[in-house]
């Protein structure tokens, strides 16, 4: 399944939008968190959604 990780600044502007594939929601959450750590966006507003629209990861 495809997942989209999006990071926003305080004004709502997109700082990052990255698509990746994962076999399970748990794997997608881990992969999303790793991408956020790599790019130093872990404490920035972000969300990760599945291609079906389900929210897997969120931080405000």
Short structural description:
The protein is α+β, with helices and mostly antiparallel strands. The chain has one helix and four strands, in the order ββαββ.
Report what the structure shows.
The chain is α+β, with helices and mostly antiparallel strands and 60 residues long. The chain is 23% helix and 42% strand. The protein has 1 helix and 4 strands, in the order ββαββ. It has one helix at 25-38, and strands at 2-8, 14-21, 46-50, 55-59. The protein has a 4-stranded antiparallel beta sheet with strand order 2-1-3-4, covered by helices on one side. The radius of gyration is 11 Å and the shape is globular.
Task: Give the secondary structure arrangement, pairings included.
Layout: E1 2-8, E2 14-21, H1 25-38, E3 46-50, E4 55-59
**Number of helical segments with 4 or more residues:** 1
Widest beta sheet: strand line-up: 2-1-3-4
**Got a strand count?**
4
Taken as a percent bin, the fraction of beta residues is 35-45%
**Helix and strand run:** EEHEE
| Residue windows where pLDDT falls under 50 for at least 5 positions | none
> What is the first-to-last residue Cα distance?
25 Å
Helix-strand makeup class: alpha+beta
Rg to the nearest angstrom?
Answer: 11 Å
The overall average pLDDT, rounded, is 96
């Amino acid at each position: 399944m495809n997942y989209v990780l999006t990071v926003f600044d305080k004004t709502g502007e997109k700082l990052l939008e990255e698509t990746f594939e994962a076999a399970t929601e748990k794997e997608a959450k881990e992969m999303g968190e790793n991408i956020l750590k790599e790019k130093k966006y872990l404490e920035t507003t972000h969300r990760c959604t599945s291609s079906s629209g389900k929210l897997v990861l969120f931080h405000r």
